[in-house]
Design a protein that fits this description.
Elements lengths: L3 E2 L4 E4 L8 E2 L3 E4 L2 E4 L4 E2 L12 H12 L4 H14 L5 H6 L2
Antiparallel strand pairs: 1-6, 2-5, 3-4, 4-5
Helix pairs in contact: 1-2
């Protein structure tokens, strides 16, 4: 079951993604940049409540997991985005991934 569907393309850069190259219908990763296309659906955070400041972190995390990107990298990107978005419980959510 998907809780969210992306309404506009989302772009994010991370050094952690520099070695990954992926092109699918909804997700494009090249040279550290990830683009997730409008219409991508995901279920948000698992086992914990979603917040405004976890929206993009869960989006990118779920996209990376869906396409079998290294879990450690996906989890660290999740943490990075929560820190960027000033989510105070980022460390707890990261441990629970």
């Amino acid at each position: 079951m998907h809780n969210y569907t992306l309404e506009n393309d989302y772009h994010y850069y991370s050094d952690r993604l520099k070695e990954i190259c992926l092109a699918t219908e909804y997700v494009f990763i090249y040279n550290g940049y990830i683009t997730i296309k409008k219409g991508f659906s995901w279920n948000g955070c698992s086992y914990v409540p979603d917040f405004k400041s976890t929206y993009y972190a869960s989006l990118v995390h779920d996209a990376l997991y869906q396409y079998k990107i290294n879990r450690k990298i996906a989890d660290l990107v999740f943490l990075d985005i929560m820190h960027r978005d000033k989510f105070k419980l980022a460390g707890i959510y990261y441990v629970g991934v």
